[in-house]
Amino acid sequence: QVQLVESGGGLVQPGGSLRLSCAASGSIVSIDAMGWYRRAPGKQRELVARISSGGSTNYGESVKGRFTISRDNAKNTVYLQMNSLKPEDTAVYYCNALRVLSPAGTYDYWGQGTQVTVSS
């Protein structure tokens, strides 16, 4: 069984930084894309950033230039470095792994979510 475990959320002041991590565990053969989404109270879930197995990235417009996604394929881990945080970045952040190949087949997986709160 494949699981995604996120870490690194918390409370930070505006202008501060946080680094999120998401490790995929289980009998994983390969993972296509990995990424981060977020859902703020009263809003729809939105893409924050995504990275392919080859390292191609794309970002949501609101985080471009402030957030950086990276990936360690050997560890099946994706990271999100968040700088210059704003109160509007406050949300639950979810890790996503697309097209994960394991003995059970090919599926998409989600983490349980980690809270990020930007407030003074």
Q: Care to describe what's here?
A:
It is a single chain. The chain contains no helices and 12 strands. The protein is mostly beta strands. The strands form 2 sheets. Strands 2, 4, 5, 6, 7, 10, 11 and 12 form an 8-stranded mixed beta sheet that branches. Strand 6 and strand 7 (57-59) form a beta hairpin. The chain starts with a strand and ends with a strand. The mean pLDDT is 96.
Sum this structure up briefly.
By secondary structure, the chain is mostly beta strands. 0% of the residues lie in helices and 57% in strands. It has strands spanning 3-7, 10-12, 18-25, 30-31, 34-39, 46-51, 57-59, 67-72, 77-82, 91-102, 105-110, 114-118.
Q: Structural class of the helices, strands and pairings?
A: mainly beta
* Termini gap: 40 Å
| SSE string | EEEEEEEEEEEE
Q: Provide the residue-averaged pLDDT.
A: 96
Total of helices = 0
Ranges with pLDDT <50 over ≥5 residues? Answer: none
- As a percent range, the share of strand residues is over 45%
User: What overall geometry do the principal axes of the alpha carbons give?
Assistant: elongated
| Biggest β-sheet strands, sense, barrel | 8 strands, mixed
Helix content class: under 10%
Give the radius of gyration: 14 Å
Count of β-strands: 12
